[in-house]
Amino acid sequence: MSQGDWQLAQGDALTRFLASAVKAERFAEFYTGETDDPAREVGPDAVSFCRHLFLQTYARRHVDPAQALPCREAVVGVDNTVAFSGFRPQAYHLQRWLRGDLFAPYRGIFTFRLATCGGVRIWNDGELLACFTPFTRNRLQHTDVQLALNAGRNSLLIHLDELFERETLFALQMIYLDEPTLGVALPEACPPIAPLAVCEPGQDHSARRLLTLMAQREYGPELDALLLRTLKCVSAREEGSVFALLALLSLWHRHRGEYFPGVLWRRVKSTVLGYRYWHDERGCDVMAFWGDENVLAFQTAQYLAGQLFPEALFIASGRRGQQQQRLALMRTADARALREQAEAYLTGAKA
Fold this sequence. Notes:
Elements: E1 6-8, E2 16-20, E3 23-26, H1 49-57, E4 71-76, E5 82-83, E6 86-104, E7 108-117, E8 119-124, E9 127-132, E10 141-149, E11 152-168, E12 171-176, E13 182-185, E14 194-195, H2 206-215, H3 221-235, H4 241-255, H5 262-274, H6 292-308, E15 313-314, E16 319-320, H7 321-331, H8 335-347
Parallel strand pairs: 4-14
Antiparallel strand pairs: 1-13, 2-4, 2-6, 3-6, 5-12, 6-11, 6-13, 7-10, 7-12, 8-9, 8-11, 15-16
Helix pairs in contact: 2-3, 2-4, 3-4, 3-5, 4-6, 6-7, 6-8
């Protein structure tokens, strides 16, 4: 149709687009920075140190529409929302580009209520019409924008981006507020439209499998591969990696490396000493330091690591192992329970 394949009336949401592939880049992978403020609020709704850094460096940067990725995948939103949400165990900057055509009955200003988890920029035939970059994690923020449209076809280009921290909502809403009906079309032929899927977090059981094989005395190449995967997870400080770290500490105490190549085993120690044991230590990651299970895991790991390496220097905190062990005891509400938990990991009663 010359005036679009779908109609957009007042109160309707614009949800049909051609979407690009995702562009995903690790954020602040090698950033060390200063020690985080120990007084800063910590919890699932608090603004992380990682996001503070992102807001300072990325949020209001210039985005060049000439660098847009090809848009070939037809997508349609659900419940008035186009979403590319998902899970990342590390800090990732994700970007998507969308294209869609609007047909206006005349040249003028047309109002939309724009909402985003992340940031959004909109161009019409190369002219920037709107830029809204709140980047409030997992909370839709709203603003009304006036889009200048020409009579007939208007080729919209939309840029979306967000910093992913664990489970992250990455979404766009465009609710049309004016009265003249607009036409909507996709800019080129495309495959059938399908609803967007939400990615679920995955779980890596390498560390648990590693300890199981060691207990069964099943030594071989699989064991080396499992240790390497566990080391990578912990070294990258992935979300949930503290439980893999506890497995490494148990492994170090019980096996002392006799079944592994020397270079691989030495990485266990360097990984333990390089880890971030609490939110007030240096680092820029998306690990969750709250919740009873996580808090106990971090305290146990700090206690055990300090016990196993009492004279070694822990890089993220600048403390010696003995200091780390004492600090873990000071932080816990139940020192006896912490010692029992640590002993269970060392003896293999807990893995």
